[in-house]
Amino acid sequence: MTATTTSRPDARPSTRDLLTRPDTRRRVVDRLMAVVVTSAFLIALVPLVSVIWTVLGNGIERLSPYFLVVSMRGVFGGMDAGGIYHAIVGTLMVTGFATLISVPVGLLTAIYLVEYGRGRLARAVTFFVDVMTGIPSIVAGLFAYALFAIFFGPGVRFGVVGAVALSVLMTPVVVRSSEEMLRLVPNELREAAYALGVPKWLTIVKVVLRTAVGGIVTGVMLAIARVIGETAPLLITLGVIDSINYNLFEGRMMTLPVYVFRQYSQGLVPCAPEAADCIATINYDRAWAAALVLIAIVMLLNLGARLVARYFTPARGH
Amino acid sequence: MRHDATRGTALAAAAAVLLLAGCGSDDPVNHPWRPGGAPTDAPAEAPVASDLSGSVAGAGASSQESAMQAWVAGFQSANPDVSVAYDPVGSGGGRTQFVEGGVAFAGSDAPLDEEELAAAQERCAPGEVVEAPLYISPIAVVFNLEGVDSLAMSPATVAGIFAGTITRWDAPEIAAENPDVALPDLGITPVNRSDESGTTENFTEYLHATAPEAWPHEPSGDWPVSGGQSAQGNSGVVQTVTDGTGTITYADASKAGSLGTVRLGVGDEFVEFSPEAAAAVVDASPRAEGRPATSFVVELDRTTTAPGAYPLVLISYTLACTAYEDPATGELVSAFLSYVAGEAGQAAAADTAGSAPVSDALRSEVLPVLEGIG
Amino acid sequence: MSTSDTPPVRQEDDDLQAARRPHRDTAGRVFAGLSTGAGTLILVVLAAVAAFLLLRAWPALTAGSEELAAISWIPDHGSIVRYVGPLVFGTLVAAVLALLMAVPVAVGIALFISHYAPRRLAASLGYVVDLLAAIPSVIYGLWGGLWLSRRLEGVWGWLADNLGFIPLFEGPAATPPRVMMTVGVVLAVMILPIITAVAREVFLQTPRLHEEAALALGATRWEMVRMAVLPFGRSGLISASMLGLGRALGETMAVLMILSPGLTYSFALLLAGRHQTIAANIALQFPEASPLGVSALIATGLALFVITLAVNMAARWVVARRKDFSGAN
The pTM is what? Predict the structure, then answer.
């Protein structure tokens, strides 16, 4: 990093100096840096590979159809039983509801920024959408809690609260990606529609949105992938529960990330030596298996998003 | 074409959701796909056809959670139409929700204070508040030291270790109490709970009562000494101790597992934790005075010298009313808590949570009250 | 994910709008109103976050020390400010540590993808790094707590034994290594992708002319990078680092699952029970907190919100300024 400060492009004499030095030293430095830069990339691969490897290796064993379709109700101690069905249901419902809130708001905001926004308000919205992407997830959780605690009293915990927290995190991501996609729509299309006498709003709905739909879907899927693994805000807004809860408006809900955390924090089970139905590491096993499912969901969403992007907009740049 | 693809994806997603929704089961224990098959020897049908139905909710101490899971499972299998929920929100949250009428019963690591008691009596009027010590759990002091699985320590030594004044395993204080043990030349790493907990409160209360000089800190649910290893929950501290070497912590005895345990100095002898020893100290301790007749609050005598008593225990109370507005709720609470206090319930908790079953003497007092709830 | 530039056709768009003005229809107005409303809603939500946090934190902010003493985890005679202090310190230590480890690696990766790797591979390599960002934080916590920390114990022990004279590495290293240093490593991995993504984007924008000029002068590839790419990308790197900092400041689960917390002002990174971050502390104490305790935790959350807001605003401001600059280029 020090190099950047000493070698401004305008430092002409030193540049010439540098370039007229004996070649071998410069070649060695060049090679060395190539190795350093390449190894930086390899270093980044280490955690990626090791995370995926450990999750796969530790999680695959417990993963079974049974694990996917049962909840944890009535499971205690080191019992060789229990699954993540309630957590999958919770994750899908809460994330789904968050998507229902975020997509309309995010998409309309993007339309506003691209098609209508002028002047100070638009600049402020652009700026604060960026700032909002940096809100810590736990703060979003506290916000949702604080909001609902006013109406429902302290200790409020149900699905919608978590969904609101997630939508605070999700909306700016949707705005960002949709905005980018809408800007990619060629203006000729808009102009052609206007020339035919189509009103602006109809042009946006029928022409602009339809052209950009692939990119927007991609963006939404990536946004979902980002929030589906959020733990902290759900930990404080949904709490934990062992049974299936299909009701977003009442009662605690379990979600996959919280399930992973909860199993992790329940830790080792001290098994009595004579106990037959007792696995000491059962909680960790379940945590790894649930983590595997979670990673699979996130990766599938990512992959799906890329596929949608490729399928709909083959000519898109990067 | 684009539309078709979107529609196809949506359809596939909907199908997946429906498929998943169709298979979901809230009964993992008896699910046919369970590895090794569903248990066939389990009490599949209740011998007496139970006519109880409905649902009842409780909330409170997380210390009771694993015992409560066993109780709920046992009670529900005997009464298939009943659903009992217990929300481990913490003792404080449980007391608040109980007083405000949000839940029918609560679990709390501490008895109600005066203010709460007054409010609770109002809530239960015209009935009375019931405070029953149904979950008695010894707290074990456990350590991870190669080749050593039991050490004797006086309260002052334990306090010294956790206060940071005794820092090595071969310190003279420990050596003097364990002349036959080869102690390694190794630093001691005490591990404490990082979250606020009843276990910490009982442990610090014990140290404060038994070794006031070595332990100058007031009893508190939050660990008063900073700068040590800590972790969340009983499992967390035990895990941390297991991962390290020369580590020591205090935790719910049910979590002690294969770690080395400390025999605590009581009077002239050193007592290993056991359910019986924990029950002994409860029996040796007097009832708190100035509370309603239905309140069975025990003033633990931490400095007891009663033979075979293990004074480092946590008592978690179950709070309920003797009468409920809705008689159906009362009936359920009565049936559930009677089961909990009964021999079957206490045995179930002892098996899964390692708690100490309440003594027969205490049961004979508590059970009539619980059975009278209506 | 860079924001694309304003399309040059905006002016015409304006004219078109003016031309159609007589056609004003209700549907159009409703649609325009809706989208403007959505944009405004974003601002309202952000303001509401601040407002509700403040509202909920108020009881704790105004409570006397006797009232606060009822919360066991607030030190005696403490005020909220004295409670927040070490937490803010711990949060900053964690984030800065992660940043120090992540930035050099991220710059390396970004350079590799933008200037060293074969062009054809660049996009997929970028995707591989993005995968790191896709992994949920709770899984990093699980990985860090159950897998990584065990493997770092020896390294930290060696650091403490050999470099213990530096206060940062004061020994003896804690066993198990539930220490800030471990957290720093995991956080660094987590913020690596965001820094890499921005840095890569910036490096790719280096004017080709500059690069070719350097090469034409006989510079080696590294010299070209040093003289053309890095100086050009400096402000972009700064904002990338700040974005990473913002992410690290608010990370909860990895810290919660790995660190032995403690409330002190200490730089000893290998000792347990010295630090705690705001976010992890909230998640730790929230489930069993009393109403006043929740209020105190929300007050700490407000502090975190303000800090991250400031960092992010600064980062965005740098980006925006840079964009103006490069746009004029």
Answer: 0.86
Topology of domain B139-280 in CATH is D-Maltodextrin-Binding Protein; domain 2 (3.40.190)
Residues in chain A with CB shorter than 8 Å from the CB of B24 are: 69-71, 85-86, 89, 244
User: Under a CB-based contact definition with an 8 Å cutoff, are residues A212 and A119 in contact?
Assistant: no
Q: CATH number, domain at A112?
A: 1.10.3720.10
Answer whether residue C262 shows pLDDT above 50: yes
For the cut 90, the answer to whether the pLDDT of residue C15 exceeds it is no
pLDDT category at A168 given cuts 50, 70, 90 is very high
Q: Smallest CA–CA separation between A62 and chain B, in Å? A: 10
Chain B touching partners, 3 or more CB pairs below 8 A: A, C
Q: How confident is the model at residue B284 (pLDDT cuts 50, 70, 90)?
A: confident
Report the complex ipTM.
0.85
Return the number of other C-beta atoms located less than 10 Å from residue B9's C-beta: 14
Here the CATH number for the domain that contains residue C69 is 1.10.3720.10
pLDDT at A306: 85
Contact C264 B221 (CB under 8 A): no
Candidates C116, C138, C312; nearest CB to A260? C138
pLDDT digit string, tens, across residues B36-56? 765 554 444 444 556 788 888
A87 and A160 belong to one structural domain? yes
pLDDT of residue B9 exceeding 70:
no
pLDDT digits (tens, 9 = 90+) for C81-91: 888 899 999 99
How far is Cα B52 from Cα A33, in angstroms, rounded to an integer?
Answer: 76
* Chain centroid offset of residue A128 CA: 19
- The residue ranges of every structural domain in chain B are 5-138+316-371, 139-280
CA distance to partner chain B, nearest, from residue A48 (Å): 24
Residues A261 and A213 occupy one common structural domain: yes
pLDDT value for B17: 60
Scanning C270-299 for CB atoms below 8 A from B yields 271-274, 284-285, 287-291
pLDDT at B45: 45
DSSP A35-68: HHHHHHHHHHHHHHHHHHHHHHHHHTTT--HHHH
Q: What superfamily does domain B5-138+316-371 belong to in CATH?
A: Periplasmic binding protein-like II (3.40.190.10)
Q: Is B233 left (phi over 0), alpha (psi -120 to 50) or beta?
A: left
Task: Give the Cα-Cα-Cα angle C157, C161, C163 (nearest 5 degrees).
Answer: 110
In the 8-state DSSP scheme, what is residue B192? Answer: E
Q: Is residue C105 part of a domain?
A: yes
Range of the domain at C222: 63-325
pLDDT of C24 over the 70 cut? no
